[in-house]
Automatic annotation (TrEMBL):
Binds 1 zinc ion per subunit. The lineage of its organism: Bacteria, Bacillati, Actinomycetota, Actinomycetes, Streptosporangiales. This is Small ribosomal subunit biogenesis GTPase RsgA. It comes from Thermobifida halotolerans. SUPFAM superfamilies: P-loop containing nucleoside triphosphate hydrolases. Pfam families: RsgA_GTPase. Monomer. Associates with 30S ribosomal subunit, binds 16S rRNA. The gene is rsgA. Keywords: Cytoplasm, GTP-binding, Hydrolase, Metal-binding, Nucleotide-binding, Ribosome biogenesis, RNA-binding, rRNA-binding, Zinc.
């Protein structure tokens, strides 16, 4: 139950208090020193509504007014996982006045025409990319979500759920591990409990579950929590899709200072400023590119391309290169739409081409 906070509650969080269970540590305590001196309280955002948010403080859960930290920019607005600066008010809801700098953030491109980034979760340490084993593994989707996870600054882990419904889960793990260098890959079954111990050993700090609807994120979350806390739903047999049973991001303690963030299912997720994440998701292509004849090789048709040579000799699968090209093009397109400087350069390039064509036509007319 959330209760109003007294304006006199200004004590520093303890190592064993409620905030410690949500990830509060010494570095956060040091960063909050000036705010504490001003009589403000630290808190962590556990859920967000319009103009309000659920929070947890050293004195327990509460509700707060979040208008001061609600931004028209979806990448900067308050989100589950944020650490906040809270001003208590006697007899009224406290006000979340500011957010501490984010250590990491999962940001995707929005579906709007404004080409903005949308933050899905903040201050995440581990991203659990959830993919169901109810059919052929969507390797392209796994690669996309891995790029998103690496770009966030967190460490990704690929979780293959519903392993009890797959005839050879070990082979699926091997298949995914081949496209997930640097990330742990675990097959789990929330029904039998297989793989849960191995997965738990890979989860540290704040853990965000990321995956499509019907992947079993909420069921997995309940298994990790040891209780049916998150709502779950059935998956349609005809297409394997599930309903959005998780309609907003929520943050729950896992124990041992670990925290779980369940996110709504992602039926489509676009990259946002993810150049570094793509390099981390496709490191072998970056390594091969160092051997290309041209430093700006696009790995499409250039002579002396080490990447194409690796495809030709079977070292690099063609599907893997195609996936890389697709994600790079998407990321560059988003960057071109969102960056005013790039847009101006593209417009200038188009004008120069137009001028060149006009001059060519004029010269051709004079010769005729």
């Amino acid at each position: 139950m959330c209760t109003p906070l007294s304006s006199e509650l200004t004590s520093s969080p303890s190592a064993s208090g409620p905030l410690a269970a949500y990830g509060w540590d010494a570095s956060l305590d040091a960063a909050f020193a000036d705010h504490r001196a001003a009589g403000l309280l630290p808190c962590r955002v556990t859920g967000v509504d319009r103009g309000r948010c659920d929070i947890v403080t050293e004195h327990g859960p509460a509700r707060a007014v979040s208008t001061p930290v609600t931004s028209p920019d979806p990448a900067r607005t308050v989100c589950a996982g944020d650490w906040g600066v809270l001003r208590p008010r006697s007899g009224e809801l406290p006000v979340l006045e500011a957010l501490l700098p984010r250590r990491s953030a999962i940001v995707r491109s929005t579906a709007s025409a404004r080409s903005e980034g949308q933050v899905l979760a903040a201050n995440v340490d581990t991203v659990a990319v959830v993919e169901p084993l109810t059919g052929p593994v969507d390797l392209a989707r796994v690669e996309r979500l891995l790029a998103l996870a690496w770009e966030s600054g967190a460490v990704p882990v690929v979780v293959l759920t519903k392993a009890d419904r797959h005839p050879a889960p070990d082979s699926a793990v091997a298949e995914v591990a081949a496209v997930a260098p640097g990330a742990g890959v675990v097959a789990v079954s929330a029904v039998t409990g297989d793989g849960l111990d191995a997965l738990t050993a890979l989860l540290t700090g704040t853990v965000a579950l990321l995956g499509p609807s019907g992947a079993g994120k909420s069921t997995l979350g309940n298994a990790l929590l040891g209780a049916d806390v998150m709502a779950t739903g059935e998956v349609r047999a005809r297409d394997g899709r599930g309903r959005h049973t998780t309609v907003r991001r929520q943050l729950l303690p896992l124990g041992g200072g670990r925290v779980l963030i369940d996110t709504p299912g992602l039926r489509g997720v676009g990259l946002w400023d993810a150049a570094e994440g793509l390099q981390r998701a496709f490191p072998e292509i970056g390594e091969l590119a160092e051997e290309c004849r041209f430093h700006d090789c696009s790995h499409t048709s250039e002579p002396g391309c080490a990447v194409l040579a690796a495809v030709a000799d079977g070292t690099l699968p063609q599907r893997r290169l195609d996936s890389y090209h697709k994600l790079v093009r998407e990321n560059e397109w988003i960057a071109a739409r969102s960056d005013a400087r790039l847009r101006a350069e593209i417009r200038r390039g188009h004008r120069e081409i137009s001028r060149s064509l006009r001059q060519s036509y004029r010269l051709r007319g004079r010769k005729e």
